[in-house]
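pinned: reference chain
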Amino acid sequence: MEAPRRLVTVVIVGCGNRGQKYARYHSLFPELCQVVGVAEPRPGVRKFMQETYKLESANVFSDWRDLVSAGKIADAVVISTQDRDHLEPAIALANLGYHMLLEKPMSTSLEECKAISEAVQANNIIFCVGHVLRYTSYSRKMKEILDSKVIGDVINIQHLEPVGWFHYVHSYVRGNWRNEKEASSILMAKCCHDVDWILWMMDKKPTRVSSFGSLKHFNEASKPEGAGERCLDCAAEPQCAYSAKNIYLDGPTGINSGNDSWPVNVITEDTTVEGVTKALETGPYGRCAYSCDNDVLDNQVVNMQFEDGSTASFTMVAFSEEVCTRKTRIFGTRGEIVGDGEKSIKVFTFVDRQKKEYFPDPPAHPEMNSHGGGDFGLMESFVKAVSTNNPSLVCNVNKTLESHMVVFEAEIARTENRVKDLDW
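pinned: its structure tokens
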């Protein structure tokens, strides 16, 4: 019999795009989850969150340290600060006994990830990282098919993340994750949950890893002739695929097309034509895509060998029409699976030469349909885990630490140009 659920109260630390999306669960199910506090440095965003969730002024903070000083004011916390700002709030709030959803990645070094893991276990809190790919109906159906052994033992997985041409230039050329020193490697910032997904599907430990990649295109050497430093006064802009004017003003994702949400609301709090124009004239998102301070890769492959000799390969590429809709092929001893990332899983079995197609349930809530419904699935699982005191509903910290370790080791293999043995 399922344990009865109680109301779970939550504080959001870091109210950017990810924090706001997780908070929407309150709007969908206020009888199950309520946002009761926020910690956010930007006054306009703080005011928006306070008004949206009718927060008491005493529970609205400009700094997470003030939240810590206030003591425990909720059951749980969602930490969605920038990658390099995870360690301190995670440990401090774990020590106060907050159950915790920590946005991916855990942190930007293995040592810091281990420190967070130790704090989680020492305080016996329910904890999960925002590996949203685990929590989609698509992924759960894929895992169910693999566990049924209908294709036998898995021999090889080929997994692709097509980041999307405008998403990549928004986030990883002009945006917050463009520079490894300020954020982390793109393999960690963008793809740590892909590596985690592969390990989950394989359900075995990798023993060796290699990786290759480059920043092939977004550099001064690739800059079009006659291009300026900003898109709004650039002669080459009309023919540039990465025009900020097109992305944020005039194109389908721009304010002139009626879009005042992502990616427009990332570049400015003033989502009017005038506000967006000013942001492009003066802010980082109006810069030429070939003249930014970016250094993260725009293409990368990771190869893994597992303890039983099976293998997996992962590819991340910036240059795609599709935005983050993963593609996967899985080869087993008795069959093969082809998955489109969201809507379809096709299974071919060797013994009877039959094909069967599965159609996972579509995202149930448009307000939280990002990542194929993974945002909703993660919050649903986390809130239920806290409500029923059942940590098995979310991925445990040890599994998360393992997948992060593989990412760190893959980056060592890439930068040192060698195959890296994994020491478990």
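why pinned: The first strand starts at residue 8 and ends at 13. The first helix runs from residue 17 to 28.
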